[in-house]
């Protein structure tokens, strides 16, 4: 006999094992939220003082709102030590074509990619994804005059996360 969705959910509600697993997940999410909030507190405060109504740097990712005026603050925090999850948010928020003329940003991202471990080398799942975010942002900001630096980067980190995007970018711009 097939179980209905309502019956399945009722069964889960009665399952002590399932409920314990869910509670452990809720506790872990709350623990991580505290870490992330504390880590980006200064960044968010600076952005708010500059007129950007955000609660997290991640609020900039995939938004249609104009935040080009936040570039200096974001680049400043790109240079600072942050939790990899917050650093990924900063990097992804800089994935805007209008930032492609910023040579300092480009150089920072090249160095970050070269010195950031790939996900395979990172044991803690919540700390993964930074190198990939950097690669995607480099792809977005790339232009023909930067092909040589991408070639050098790919040569240095041939097994880096999302390196195929960088290789495709080299081919596209060459």
Number of domains: 1
Mean pLDDT: 94
Number of strands: 0
Structural class: mainly alpha
Strand content: under 5%
User: Helix proportion of residues, in percent?
Assistant: 55-70%
Note the topology:
Layout: H1 5-14, H2 16-39, H3 41-49, H4 71-78, H5 84-93, H6 103-115, H7 130-141, H8 147-156, H9 163-173
Helix pairs in contact: 4-5, 5-7, 6-7, 7-9, 8-9
Briefly say what this structure is.
With 174 residues, this protein is mainly alpha-helical. The chain has helices at 5-14, 16-39, 41-49, 71-78, 84-93, 103-115, 130-141, 147-156, 163-173.
List keywords for this structure.
174 residues; mainly alpha; 0% strand; HEAT repeat-containing protein
Characterise this structure.
This protein is an all-alpha fold and 174 residues long. It has one domain (18-173). It contains nine helices and no strands. The protein has helices spanning 5-14, 16-39, 41-49, 71-78, 84-93, 103-115, 130-141, 147-156, 163-173. The longest helix is centred in the N-terminal third of the chain and has 24 residues, at 16-39.
